[in-house]
From TrEMBL:
Pfam family, one: Cu-oxidase_2
Gene3D superfamilies noted in UniProt: Cupredoxins - blue copper proteins
Organism: Pseudorhodoplanes sinuspersici
Biased composition (Polar residues): 392-403
GO MF annotation terms: copper ion binding; oxidoreductase activity
Name of the molecule in the record: Copper oxidase
Span of domain Plastocyanin-like: 95-197, 206-314, 403-488
Domain of life where this protein originates: Bacteria
InterPro entries cross-referenced by the UniProt entry: Cu-oxidase-like_N, Cu-oxidase_2nd, Cu-oxidase_C, Cu-oxidase_fam, Cupredoxin
Renumbered residue ranges of the record's region Disordered: 383-403
Length: 507
């Protein structure tokens, strides 16, 4: 049996049961696992929320019944996401606690687990002391549900609530987080898993939400203004825990979903010589390929889904290690290899995951082309600056001087969009980074292709978040197929407080 902490990666009873053909192992009905999904319920009345304590018993019972649990998964799910202060022992049970802000007062917040095509409502209740919103990172939701403060909604004041309602268009690994400046760093985030319509051929589905914490000796969070360049003094956690143990058997294929929930740390993750197939990037299926040296590098906000084929023997451990900078490595989790039944032997190359409804072609000849400079310093305290509207966007590159608005200075006066496009028009954005800082770019509402350097060919995967290194230029392409006002977020890897955004309009 596995205690609550051992089950911290295995968050959803009904899905585990489905994959295992109804023969649930003890771990799948563990109350600790059930507590991780305190909000799934059959929607009898939309306003009736069930408390975590009473629901956990219900979920545990349902775990044994395939039919009932599938019916539950297909019913409209409602999540109550309460942004509130909490106290968590990130360093371990005997260590000083850290005051965080989290959904439900925990970190990560509850796992939102949906089926593709499922309609979903999350009620954000602000039990904190400052305004907040939720951004659904990578999910292609209607503009009014995107959660960008002032651009798509007003921040939700303390004591107030807001209902986010959308259909899960794409299967994959996504996440949600508070969008106001500084709130992600304090713990206001959680994972979103959207299951494929058909079962995926793996033995287990394991989720690791990765984060770094700058703590002092008393366990208090240091000001995020500090430099994150060196990971020496940082604590690294997976699902809010240190060195999480994940039981596995030799011969098993494990789907490992990795989410980089840090504000601005690049995370090279390695799996000690196990064969790790990359099957999805930023939630979207990719043609499976084997990660070189069993390592993947995940930028802040990016997600990678791996199929890991366990080749070790009973009693062994497979460390999951990150490079924390300067050649230092930190073990953040491990597979603990157990005895018992296993397939033994290799399954061979995995099939691609089923495609999501993304455009099969992007007509770049008719694309609106806009260039954005990343290296320019953010504006000083003056948020409402008139920005240049591109008059002849097909031919000119005058978008270079972008006014990136600092996230901590957003207000209702967001000025004019950087560019405007008609719905369904292709867009090519060039991000030029002449400076010596790396930036992470996140385009809201749209999943994009990364174009090749020399021509308009593209890499064989989709992204919603992109790292642009120093002195690099990157070009992306997408179809602007969702109307509304969409943010392009920019975050510096070396200066955590420098979050900023610009925006475009699709009409
Ligand atoms: Cu995000």
């Amino acid at each position: 049996m596995f205690g609550p902490s051992g089950a911290a990666y295995n968050m959803c009873v009904e899905t585990s049961t489905r994959k295992m053909g109804g023969h649930a192992r003890p771990r799948n009905v563990d109350p600790g696992a059930a507590m991780k999904v305190p909000f799934f319920q059959k929607s009898l009345t939309r306003r009736a929320f069930v408390s975590a304590a009473s629901l956990s018993a219900t979920v545990t019972i349902l775990g044994g019944s395939r039919a009932v649990s599938q019916a539950m998964a297909q019913a409209e799910a409602i999540a109550e996401l309460r942004a509130k202060a909490g106290s968590v022992r990130l360093r371990g049970p005997q260590q000083p606690a850290t005051n965080i802000m989290g959904y439900g007062g925990t970190v990560p917040g509850p796992t939102v687990r949906l089926r593709r095509g499922q309609e979903f409502t999350a009620r954000l209740i602000n039990d904190g002391a400052e305004p907040t919103t939720i951004h659904w990172h990578g999910l292609r939701v209607p503009n009014a549900m995107d959660g960008t403060p002032y651009l798509t909604q007003l921040p939700v004041a303390p004591v107030q609530s807001f209902d986010y309602r959308f259909v899960a268009k794409d299967a994959g690994t996504f996440w949600y987080h508070a969008a106001l400046a500084g709130q992600l760093a304090r713990g206001l985030y959680g994972p979103v898993i959207v299951d494929e319509s058909e079962p995926v051929d793996v033995d287990h589905d394991v989720l690791l939400v990765l984060d770094d914490w700058n703590l002092d000796d008393n366990g208090s969070l240091r000001d995020i203004g500090g430099s994150a360049a060196s990971g020496q003094h940082f604590l690294f956690t997976a699902n809010g825990l240190r060195d999480l143990a994940i039981p596995a058997r030799r011969g098993e294929r494990i789907r490992l979903r990795l989410i980089n929930a840090t504000v601005n740390r690049l995370l090279p993750v390695s799996l000690s010589n196990q064969t790790a197939w990359v099957v999805a990037i930023d939630g979207q299926p990719a043609e499976p390929f084997i990660a070189r040296d069993s390592q993947v590098v995940i930028a802040p906000g990016n997600r990678i889904d791996l199929f890991v084929d366990i080749a070790e023997d009973v009693g062994d451990t497979v460390p999951i290690v990150i490079d924390s900078g300067g050649g230092q490595s930190v073990q953040i989790a491990r597979f603990a290899i157990e005895g018992g039944a296993s397939r033994n032997g290799s399954r061979g190359a995995p099939k691609s995951l089923p495609q999501n409804p993304l455009p099969s072609r992007i007509d770049l000849r008719n694309a609106l082309r806009v260039q954005l400079a990343l290296g320019a310093a953010p504006l000083p305290a003056k948020p409402s600056v008139e920005r240049k509207k591109i008059s002849n966007p097909k031919t000119n590159n005058q978008g270079t001087n972008v006014s990136w608005m600092p996230m901590d200075q957003l207000s209702s006066s967001l000025g004019a969009p950087l560019f405007s496009v008609r719905k369904d028009q292709p867009v090519v954005l060039t991000f030029a980074n002449p400076g010596d800082q790396a930036y992470v770019i996140h385009v809201h509402g749209h999943t994009f292709r990364l174009l090749d350097n020399l021509d308009d060919g593209w890499k064989p995967f989709w992204l919603d978040t992109l790292l642009v290194g120093p002195q690099q230029t990157a070009r992306i392409a997408f179809v602007a197929d969702l109307t509304g006002k969409w943010a392009i977020e920019r975050r510096s890897l070396s200066e955590p407080s420098r979050e900023s955004l610009t925006w475009f309009e699709v009409s």
